[in-house]
Amino acid sequence: MTVGREGHSQVGSGAATRVEAEPSAGSAIRISNVTKSFGAPGHGPTVLRTIDLTVRENEFVSLVGRSGCGKTTLLNIIAGLERPTSGTVEIHGRAVRGPGQGQGVVFQQHALFPWMTALRNVVFGFRDASLSKSDKQERARELLQLVGLSAAADKYPREMSGGMQQRVAIARALALDPEILLMDEPFGALDELTRIELQQELLRIWEARKKTVVFVTHSINEALALSDRVILLAPHPGRIERDLAIDLPRPRLRTDPRFIALHEEIWKGLSS
Amino acid sequence: MRGRLVLQYAVSAAVIVGAIALWELGVKTGYLKAYQFPPASRIAEGFVEIATTGFPTGITIWSHVLTTVTRILQGYLAALALAIPVGLVIGAFPLVNKMLEPVIVFCRSIATLSLLPLVIVWFGAGELTKVILIAYGCFWVMLSNVIAAVVYVDPVLIRAGRSFGLKGVALYREVVLPAALPRMFAGARMALGVGFMVIVGAEMIGTIEGLGALIMEARTFYRSEITIIGMLVIGVLGFVISTGLAALERVLLPWGATGEGARA
Amino acid sequence: MNRERLTNIALPLIGTLIVVAVWEAASRLGAIDPRVFPGPVTAIAEAAGRLSADTVGEHMAWSLFRVFSGFALGVAAGVVIGVLAGWYRWFGLIARPLIELLRPIPPLAWIPLAIIWFGLGEPSKFFIIFLGAFFPVVTATYHGVTNVDPILVRAARTFGVGGWSLLARIVLPAASPDLATGIRIGWGLSFGVLVAAELIAADRGLGYMIMNERNTGGSVSVIIVGILLIGFLNLLTDAAIGSAIQRWIGRWHGSGV
Q: Could you tell me if B250 lies within 8 Å of chain A, comparing CB atoms?
């Protein structure tokens, strides 16, 4: 825990523009003044400009925006898969230098290893060398059970439906026991019914396991159904447009007038 | 659905039997010359001869097959043993790959059999020459496929591996290598096809043993039926080998990623 | 952007130069015997001394003439038979078993039979080069025609397109990526077969040129330069066919074949 550590209250120059109030304690992710451009400095396109964002512990935050607003890039930067051109990202006060610092990632395509069965894919997630092979297998089975896939342990990804593949991918990411779960449009390729089912699963896991989640999506409904906060990103260059707290009780109904009002508000924010 | 498949096979068999019968009839009525189009009956007789006394006398069809297969295997396995490690290393270093690419493409473009005169000058017209030619043809095909297999691994899988903190050699071993296997296997299959092609040509010069030599030798002695038998045996052998490799791939790579996209 | 382009040109160039330099150095320093394996400079100088440009040009012209004519006819026959077999069920039922039966036989194995049928002259070489192109093209065309996305065919039918018009305007274009693959493979085979045929039985052409040099105990340099020349010809023609295919279907199919 990094509560009260020095430097915690000192935020980058963009702090004043944040809608969200300064978190008092337990910020899980702190993004300060992050800019990302591709190619040679000053020549390539700028994908993200001066992003400031703080995510509290156990918070469920969605990043929403049109294609090209840099939401996936931002997620990859938090994951340590890409480096920002400038600015810093901290996870529990430690600067992110690469992957494997407590971030688990679930990708848009399931990204399961096709040559491994479901079980072995999850076993792969346990990188802790001190665990024995049978320990890993046992825990992997528990995780498969958590995502409701005990029966499919020996199936190859090819033999599973899209929904099952994504469940395995979630189980694999959980194997790291990550403090932070980063999800990049994980349900984007699924049909509507499977999608809603997996959203409920995810909320259940999130509540049971107490994770901080950053969730990229382009579905307003999905963001509203899941999140504590919705961050709207605007494109060219990618920047934070709005930061909305969603304090509706879960489970949320799409017919709830407040839900509809928020939907309208986000829609306006995105079309402006 | 099954009935339809059976029907299809029946029609296929009928077409082939019909073609053979027409051919036989053509020779009987004198429209086709028996030397140019030896009929099935003569081919059958020839097969009995070549399977027992052999052609040239003493060398049966089985020993021709054995000779050819041995030559292919020697060259092929040598090529694989060299191409796989070299390809894995080149594929791991994009800079090296970029530098060597034109050389590899060029060496692959050299028609293997055009090396025959040179290799004969160097190593004589014996066994070694044939094995070297096969190895050359197989090597470059395999090498370019191994490199491509490593370079074109789905980036999503690499990201997934990295998201678990893997990098460097561990990433290569645990993610890149297995992901590259299907395409490497496809390369191995292609390389064997090349070896098969090369051996037939290489055996046509300076030897009397092996299937390529057999069909060429039979022509010199006006035994066209034996030439045709030899061709059919080559075809069957090629078919059996490629079916066998496909079966092997299903056993070794049970996750069922067939080597799509791997092309010559 | 510019820098990336530069490295894309510079690196392959540097790599090639290094390989050629190592070859030259190896022969100069005596690591390989220059009489058996001369360095590039010696090889080219010596070959230039022994061969006139006219002779080489004539051999090259013969090789190219053979391979292009055999290949062109092989592609034409492959496309026609492949389309008919894919489009007309009865024709497919007759043609496919015969094609499948003969396809596993490598084109080179046809050489003796070609000589029996057509004698030792040009037609037999023409025939096996033809086969080299025919089988890959006919199988690829058949595969392309029978695997056209049915939704495209249905879409065309809703506009009242049918029969030959459907074949020419929908099915053939949809099958063209497969056809392009077949053509590319067919070209490689035709070229390989050409060289082999010229080595085994010919009195002109590049394959003959190098084989004759070795049979008459001539210079290794000529053989080496001949091999390199054959390699370059193959590389250039293949690249030309590749870029023609790219212009043909690249825009809508996305990638070259």
A: no
**What does the pLDDT look like over B26-57, one tens digit per residue?**
888 888 888 888 888 889 999 999 998 888 88
Q: What is the CATH number of the domain that holds C150?
A: 1.10.3720.10
| Shortest Cα distance, chain C CAs vs residue B13, angstroms | 8
Minimal Cβ distance to C210: which of B35, B114, B204: B114
- Pick from C9, C111, C124, C215 the residue to mutate for testing the B interface (most B CBs within 10 Å): C111
What letter would DSSP give residue A248? Answer: P
- Say if CB A154 and CB A82 are below 8 A apart: no
Q: Which fold has domain B37-252?
A: MetI-like fold (1.10.3720)
Q: Is residue C157 part of a domain?
A: yes
Residues of B numbered 53-92 whose beta carbons fall under 8 angstroms of chain C's beta carbons: which are they?
A: none
Which member of B156, B162, B164 has the closest CB to residue A125? B164
Q: How far apart are CA B166 and CA C158, in angstroms?
A: 53
Going by pLDDT thresholds of 50, 70 and 90, the confidence category of residue C255 is low
Range of the domain at C98: 52-253
**CA-nearest residue of chain A to B175?**
A113
* Angle, vertex CA B125, rays to CA B124 and CA B130, nearest 5: 110
Residue B85 has pLDDT above 80, yes or no: yes
The pLDDT value given to residue B12: 87
Q: Smallest Cα–Cα separation from B98: which of C63, C15, A179?
A: C15
Tokens describing residue A10: 């000192």
Contact B114, C207 (CB under 8 A): yes
